[in-house]
Amino acid sequence: MTTPKTDIDSAPQAAVPGAAFTDASCYHATLGTLLLEHDGRAEPATVLGNTAATRARRTQDGPVFGDLVPALIDSMAARGHRVVRGRLADEDGWGGLTAALHAGDPLVVVVDTFHLDHYWLDRGRVHALHALTLRQFNPADGTVRLTDAVDVTFVDNRVPLADLEPALLGSDIGQGWLEVADWGPVAGTVGVGSPKELQVHAAALSGCGGEELSGVELAAYLSDSLDRLFELTPRLARPDARGGADDERRRVTRLMRGMWNYHHTLRWFARYLLALPAADDTRPTAAAVERASQDWLAARSMLLHSGLASPARTARYRDEVARRLGRVAGDLQAAGELLGGGPEVPAWEG
Amino acid sequence: MGRLSRASVLRALDLRDHRNNAGCALPGAAAGTGLDGLGRSFPAEELRHLEDLMGGLPPRWGLGAPDNVECVGQRIDLPEPLRVRSLGVLGACTGGSYRDELLLESGTPGIARRPVGLGLTDFLAATPANGESCVAACSFLRENGRDVQGPVPRLWRREVELEPPHDTVAVWLPVNPDIHVFGIWVHAEPVDRDHAEDGEESP
Predict the structure, then answer these.
(1) Which residue of A has its CA nearest to B154?
(2) Backbone dihedral angles phi then psi of residue B52, each to the nearest 5 degrees
(3) Of all helices (H) and strands (E), which one includes residue B78?
(4) Residue A316 and residue B134: Cβ atoms within 8 Å?
(5) DSSP annotation of A153
(6) pLDDT per residue over A286-336, tens digit each?
(7) A302: exposed, middle or buried (C-beta count within 10 Å: 0-12, 13-18, 19+)?
(8) Nearest 5 degrees, angle CA B129-CA B135-CA B136?
(9) Which among B47, B72, B124 has CB closest to A152?
């Protein structure tokens, strides 16, 4: 038996040497790694936290979330970092990716976890997309430095590029890559958190009437849909008997993924507020947004747990989700007013 | 000058009546749905040394009996009213890392429960999300009785100083089933009811 390492009385520290930058969101983790690789003085939060958009819209079937990646590409572009996206299914997609590696460019690759050796969560079981960072390609031996900066699947080592081919090419579920074609200034916070920028964020948090739901609108929308949500989410706890053909199961899967992404959006937005030059002024706003991000994650968790819980426990979760969503709405309303300078916040046209 | 004669001591809270989840499994033992509802658990044989922080090992440790508290709003009574100066938690989360709240109940009518931040990291995360200490990094993950090499389940320790100290009769856990508490302790002294509002210091 291996004796576990203990650290009972020492100060908090990174549990894994070298894992200085990790995150629970793979796209934040990979793009953050690229920023830090480009300039070690970078504060990723001023870039990747520069959005509070829900990317959610109201539909007949309930809230539908858009993809997180375009929002992060836009956030990179707002700081002058032009990100281009390649798809491996495109003609010569593989050639494009290897050409970028030969040019020495660090890349984000989006792979199929079913074929990903270190990704024990899904390996050999589940086909899903996951983002990794590839850098420092060595043409002499065909190896590349692979970093998975997600906190629960962290690795950072050199592997033969050929070992990744099954995850990149062994299926077609949307694998591809992202590379930064042009870099803007990285270090410093000049222009970050301008009044115009903060007005956009205020509207994303607490505006009303836009095409895209604000955070306050989204929380209210989910609160109004709780009965339906608690009917739907237990589907995820049961085996997928219809092999992916269950529309409602797919819908609730997308909803849970969208809620997961919005949690990270809010969490990173709170970090952005704390990284602003006037962080002392935005600290109360950051605290409200951070609490909302945590309440949001807890609400999602209870929706997921309801499939395995007793009726009494599920009723408890329902009450708590309602309470948490109410607090999310209140916190985001307050945050929007603090950022926007008052309760009259224009609708976001994003 | 303080008037309190009894010094603060460290007290583990009794979780026996509140444990409701089996998150640690010995080799070959069935841990049911495990810590995360998916059959994943700590290898129990690697956590025995944390007995003191857990207030003693639970009965049938590692054999499928409850060994931690999945938080669903439980009220945990203190053995007597205590002036709490700090509060510590041993635990981990599933499905992400959290910053949630415990509530301290004073037992005095009209005084609202005092929220105390509770930040705990995911049991599979490589780094602490909230500045916790890692107190155990296991060699592998036990998943539905199978030992999975690669993932490293971790237990985290979080301590919060209370300023000012808070007279407390019970601790309320949040309703958040992704938070798993293996131990709670307080650094506290008995409340001197005659001078309960004076905020005396230990000598």
Answers:
(1) A15
(2) -65, -40
(3) strand B75-93
(4) no
(5) S
(6) 999 999 999 999 999 999 999 888 999 999 999 999 999 999 999 999 999
(7) buried
(8) 100
(9) B124
Residue type, A276: L
Residues whose CB is less than 8 angstroms from the CB of residue B66 and which lie 6 or more positions away in sequence, other chains included: B19, B20, B21, B22, B58
Q: Which chain A residues are Cβ-neighbours of B37 within 8 angstroms?
A: 305, 308
What is the number of other CB atoms lying within 10 angstroms of the CB of residue B72? 21
Minimal C-alpha gap between A196 and chain B (Å) = 31
Contact A286, A201 (CB under 8 A): no
Out of B53, B127, B129, closest to residue A19 by CB: B127
Partners of B141 on chain A (C-beta within 8 Å) are 120
Contact B135 A6 (CB under 8 A): yes
Q: Is the CB of residue A114 less than 8 Å from the CB of residue A127?
A: yes
Q: Which of B95, B137, B141 sits opposite A5 (nearest CB)?
A: B137
Contact A14 B98 (CB under 8 A): no
Distance from CA of A249 to the nearest CA of B (A): 19
Subunit contact A152:B176, Cβ cutoff 8 A: no
In this predicted model, what pLDDT tens digit does every residue of B17-73 receive, in sequence order? 999 999 999 998 887 889 999 999 999 999 999 999 998 999 999 999 999 999 999
Q: Which amino acid is at A154?
A: F
Which residues of chain A are within 8 Å of residue B131 when distances are taken between CB atoms?
Answer: 12
How many Å is the Cα radius of gyration of chain A? 21
Cα dist from B176 to A48, A53, A305, A308, whole Å: 28, 26, 10, 14
Distance CA B70, CA A302 (A): 12
Token code pair at residue A315 = 């009723």
Question: What interface predicted TM-score (ipTM) does this complex get?
Answer: 0.89
